[in-house]
Amino acid sequence: MRRAFELRCTVAELDRFYAECFPRQLDTMWVSRPKPAPDLLLHALTALEVEAARAWMVGDSRFDRDAARAAGIYFIGLGIDGDRRIEALAELGS
Question: Which residues have CB under 8 Å from 87's CB, separation 6+?
């Protein structure tokens, strides 16, 4: 039987948790052009010191796909065609 539980935390605790799990946080505030322009992805590659040929991205929109292609990143489409198509994130392990 499943038990429901409630998680209570402060915004500061949540911010601390997020920063620990995701030390590099990038969004459209870092670039002048949002998707489908590749700017954010190119910025992320630079920040993470990763070559586009060694990166992959999961996305669920044509804007995600177009940005990945323009940046030269392998695109895994979640319910959308790409270099690979999946229907659920659980498929990433296979």
Answer: 78, 79
For the sheet containing 84-86, what is the strand order? 56-59, 74-78, 84-86
Q: pLDDT digit of tens for each residue in the chain (94 aa)?
A: 555 555 566 767 767 776 776 666 666 777 788 889 999 999 889 988 999 999 999 999 999 999 999 999 999 999 999 999 999 988 988 6
CATH number of the domain to which 62 belongs: 3.40.50.1000
The domain in which residue 29 lies consists of 11-93
Count how many domains the chain has.
1
